[in-house]
Amino acid sequence: MAAKLNLDKLDLQIIHEMMENAEISYAELGKKLFVSGGTIHVRIKKLQELSVVKGTKLHVDLKQLGYDVIAFIGIYLEKSSLYDSVARELQKIPEIVRLNYTTGNYSMFAEIVCKDINQLRFVLHDELQKIKGIERTETFISLDESLNRNVQVFKE
């Protein structure tokens, strides 16, 4: 994919560094990669225009904010052709933080974050089950997250 987008080693180094620490200044990153801060700025702008870089995110410890339940939901659709309409409805549920169209047992797989089991029950029973096209769901509650990392796009 990098070849298709015409990304070079510097682009990949910038992506790698920014994935590790998006707060680093362009000047500081430039020093680290032996180029000017202006070069970093131009490259980041190019990566944004190519939609390789889509903003930055603040990593928040949700448990510290009272979100104690993370669950994964396997969703069976009545027909796979209903994916788009079901996905639109699922996107309206704020507790769903990730949604994928999948192969295998489920048509869709969602990650959901809730403050407690009561909120999870509400989302599952009162919101998910009323969406037309969902045949049934299977819920997996996460007991602990052992790993959460980005893919390595560049190795020095």
Task: Describe this entry's structure for a reader.
With 156 residues, the protein is an alpha+beta fold. The chain has 2 domains: 48 residues, Winged helix-like DNA-binding domain superfamily/Winged helix DNA-binding domain (Arc Repressor Mutant, subunit A); 80 residues, Lrp/AsnC effector binding domain/regulation of amino acid metabolism (RAM) domain (Alpha-Beta Plaits). Helix content is 36%, strand content 19%. It contains 6 helices and 4 strands. The protein has a 4-stranded antiparallel sheet with strand order 2-3-1-4. Strand 2 and strand 3 form a beta hairpin. Helix 3 crosses helix 4. The protein is elongated and about 55 Å long.
What's the layout of helices and strands?
Elements: H1 2-5, H2 9-20, H3 26-33, H4 37-49, E1 69-77, H5 83-90, E2 96-101, E3 108-114, H6 117-127, E4 134-141
Antiparallel strand pairs: 1-3, 1-4, 2-3
Helix pairs in contact: 3-4
Could you give a quick summary of the protein structure above?
The chain has 156 residues and is an alpha+beta fold.
Key structural traits:
Arc Repressor Mutant, subunit A; 156 residues; transcription; 4-stranded antiparallel β-sheet; 2 domains; alpha+beta; sequence-specific DNA binding; Tscrpt_reg_AsnC/Lrp_C; DNA-binding; transcription regulation; elongated; Alpha-Beta Plaits
CATH class of the largest domain: Alpha Beta
Mean pLDDT: 91
Summed up, the helix count is 6
CATH architecture descriptor name of the largest domain:
2-Layer Sandwich
Oligomeric state: single chain
Tell me the total number of β-strands: 4
Spatial ordering of strands, largest sheet: 2-3-1-4
- Cα end-to-end separation: 19 Å
Indicate the CATH topology of the largest domain: Alpha-Beta Plaits
Shape: elongated
